[in-house]
C-alpha cells in the first residue's frame, strides 16, 4: 500500500511537470535581464529566432486571427509556428514572398514589447554579440553585411470604431497620421524630423485646441507613406478584380486616434464611472476636427488601441509600418451602429487579402 502511494505520488509529479512544460514555452538560460534573449537567440516574448521571422510582417491583435491569416499563405509554406501568451506567430510565403503574421494582443504596451523584440531579431548579431551595422556607420567590420532598415515592413490589420459621421460600417480605415492618446511612446525621444514636421504639428495643435485631449499629453506620428499608398493601391486592385455585381470594399484614408484603453480612454461612459470621465465628449469632438496637412483636408477616420506605437516606434528605427482596420462600430452621426458578424467577418477577410497583396508588392 505504501509502495502504491509512492508510485502514485511520483506519477502525479511527472504528470504535473509534463503539463507545465506544454503550457509554458521553454526560454532557456537568459543572461541579461535588460535584453532577455537565450544564448541561441530566442527572444523572451516572441519565442522565436531571427531566421524564423520574415522581414514582411502582418500584425494582428487577436491571436485567433493568426491561423486565419496563415490560411491565405501558399499551400504547405508555413515553416514556423510559435505560441507564447497572447503572441502567436506563423511564418510562410504568400505568392512566393516570405511573410510572417504575428499577434500583439491588445494595447500599445504589448506593441512596444513586440517592436523591441522584432528589432532585436532583425538587427542583433548573436554570433558576434553585437548590433548589425547600417549604411553610414563608422568602422564597419570587413565581411559584415550592412543592414537596411527599410527591409522591415509591417502592416497592422485590426478592427476599430469610427468617430467619422459618414463612415460606412465594415469599411477600411487606412491610417495616414496618428493621434497618440496613450503614453507608451512618451518614454522615447522624438526624432528631430518628427518634431519639425508641419503636418504633425498641425495634428497635435488641432487636437489640443479643439478637443478635451488638451488636458492629456497627446503626441502625433505618421504611417510610412509607402505603406499607406500600398494599401490604397491594393484596395483599388482588389475592387477592380471583383466579379460583376460584387460589393466593393470601401475604404477611407485619414487619421487614427490610438487610445490606451477601451472605455473612458475612448469616451465610453459606463455606469458609475460616467461622472469621472476626463473627456466624456471625446467621440463627438473627434468627429468635428479636420487637419490641414500636405495631402489636403484630413479627418479622424478611426479609434483603436495599437497603431500609434506601431508607427512611432517603427519610424524611430527606420522601418516601414502602417495600419488598416475594419470599422466594426460607428460611434457618431444620426445612428450609432455595430456590425453584424457577417459584415465584420467579410470585412476582415477582405482586409487580410488586401494587406497581403500590399505587403508583398512593396519595394
UniProtKB/TrEMBL annotation:
Its GO biological process annotations read: uridine catabolic process
Q: Which InterPro entries match?
A: Nucleoside_phosphorylase_d (IPR000845), Nucleoside_phosphorylase_sf (IPR035994)
Q: Which Gene3D superfamilies match?
A: Nucleoside phosphorylase domain
Start and end residues of each Nucleoside phosphorylase domain:
56-359
- An annotated Gene Ontology molecular function: uridine phosphorylase activity
Q: Which GO terms describe its cellular component?
A: cytosol
Q: Which SUPFAM superfamilies match?
A: Purine and uridine phosphorylases (SSF53167)
Q: Pfam families per the record?
A: PNP_UDP_1 (PF01048)
Q: What is this protein called?
A: Nucleoside phosphorylase, putative
Origin organism of this chain?
Trypanosoma cruzi marinkellei
Amino acid at each position: 500500500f505504501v509502495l502504491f502511494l509512492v508510485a502514485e505520488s511520483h506519477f502525479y509529479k511527472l504528470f504535473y511537470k509534463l503539463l507545465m512544460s506544454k503550457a509554458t514555452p521553454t526560454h532557456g538560460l537568459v543572461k541579461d535581464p535588460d535584453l532577455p534573449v537565450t544564448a541561441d537567440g530566442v527572444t523572451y516574448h516572441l519565442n522565436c529566432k531571427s531566421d524564423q521571422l520574415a522581414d514582411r510582417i502582418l500584425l494582428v491583435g487577436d491571436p485567433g486571427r493568426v491561423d486565419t491569416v496563415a490560411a491565405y499563405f501558399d499551400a504547405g509554406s508555413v515553416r514556423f509556428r510559435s505560441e507564447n501568451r497572447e503572441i502567436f506567430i506563423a511564418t510562410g510565403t504568400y505568392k512566393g514572398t516570405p511573410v510572417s503574421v504575428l499577434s500583439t494582443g491588445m494595447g500599445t504596451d504589448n506593441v512596444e514589447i513586440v517592436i523591441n523584440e522584432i528589432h532585436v531579431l532583425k538587427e542583433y548579431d548573436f554570433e558576434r554579440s553585437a548590433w548589425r551595422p547600417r549604411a553610414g556607420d563608422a568602422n564597419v567590420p570587413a565581411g559584415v553585411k550592412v543592414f537596411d532598415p527599410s527591409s522591415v515592413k509591417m502592416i497592422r490589420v485590426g478592427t476599430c470604431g469610427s468617430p467619422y459621421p459618414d463612415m460606412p460600417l465594415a469599411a477600411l480605415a487606412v491610417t495616414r497620421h496618428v493621434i497618440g492618446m496613450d503614453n507608451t511612446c512618451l518614454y522615447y525621444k522624438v526624432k528631430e524630423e518628427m518634431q519639425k514636421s508641419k503636418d504633425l504639428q498641425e495634428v497635435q495643435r488641432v487636437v489640443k485646441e479643439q478637443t478635451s485631449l488638451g488636458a492629456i499629453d497627446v503626441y502625433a506620428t505618421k504611417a510610412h507613406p509607402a505603406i499607406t499608398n500600398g494599401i490604397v493601391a491594393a484596395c483599388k486592385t482588389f475592387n477592380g478584380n471583383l466579379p460583376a455585381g460584387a460589393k466593393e470594399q470601401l475604404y477611407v484614408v485619414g487619421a487614427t486616434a490610438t487610445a490606451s484603453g477601451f472605455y473612458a480612454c475612448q469616451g465610453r461612459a459606463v455606469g458609475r464611472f460616467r461622472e469621472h470621465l476626463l473627456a466624456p465628449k471625446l467621440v463627438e469632438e473627434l468627429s468635428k476636427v479636420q487637419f490641414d496637412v500636405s495631402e489636403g483636408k484630413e479627418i479622424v477616420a478611426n479609434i483603436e488601441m495599437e497603431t500609434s506605437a506601431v508607427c512611432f516606434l517603427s519610424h524611430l528605427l527606420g522601418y516601414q509600418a502602417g495600419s488598416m482596420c475594419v470599422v466594426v462600430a460607428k460611434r457618431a452621426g444620426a445612428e450609432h451602429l455595430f456590425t453584424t458578424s457577417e459584415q465584420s467577418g467579410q470585412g476582415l477577410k477582405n482586409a487580410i487579402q488586401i494587406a497581403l497583396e500590399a505587403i508583398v508588392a512593396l519595394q
